[in-house]
Amino acid sequence: MSSQLDFAVRCAGVSSTTDVDGDQAAASANSLVYFYRLGQPPHLTSGLRLACTAVRTPAGWRLRESRTMVAWMHEK
Known about the structure:
4 strands, single chain
């Protein structure tokens, strides 16, 4: 069994927003993702919506919740 991967993923075009309210924050981002098989053009493209909430602790900011949602997908 080979330990070498035969695929790659590239993320591009991320836009994000962050809202801080005291010791809590909410952030979201849109991401364009290209899926490749090595040596070939992308075979799948998708748009992802990322969202998370964070809290400030004595040790710094920590994620409370994180979600990744597929907005759309296009297979070539």
